[in-house]
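Q: I have 202 residues here and want to know how they pack in 3D. Can you give me a structure?
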Amino acid sequence: MNDALQQIHDFLPCRTPGQWIENALANQDLMLIDHAHCEKKAASTALSLMYRYVDNPDLLNRMSRLAREELRHFEQVLGIMNRRGVVYTHLAPARYAAGLRQSVRTDDPGRLVDVLIVGAIIEARSCERFAALAPHLDDVLADFYASLLKSEARHYRDYLALAEQANGGAVDDRIRHFLAIEQALIETPDSEFRFHSGPVPQ
């Protein structure tokens, strides 16, 4: 797993700021609620790709597996929340995913390529944050977040492979474009804490 995590560190343009980790540790109930929302949204994204691109067998197979795994993670987060007395509630979404998706092209195959790259970046950032948080958490949460690293790293690779397939070749220019946006979203101070927010000044 160290190799996979190193690949993700090499892929992402920056590490999670220390201030965000402090925000997360101070808001663990909120972190769990938003984490549950993130897993549900990830499953929804995979399913929507399956509905839209019915003629792509590789995408259908990979997204079907991904959706099942994300829903299983959603159930696991809800279980942890239930044992801790944390109530699952609606949250306004972070600016993160919307900020990335603003640059998605509107026509295919460019749209599909960009949606898949955005999916890869979100999965990679999730993996990086699980690893950054784990050493600071109680044993139950630390073990759970460590257990998610393998699947999140595979999801990131699956998304990138599908993006290259949809593009008929390398997608380096589009990756660089979206990673520049991602870095600004991760490093710029945010107004409210979320799992994918920037640091929130205290």
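Q: Anything worth noting?
A: The domain at 19-88+97-187 is CATH 1.20.1260.10 (Ferritin). The mean pLDDT is 95.
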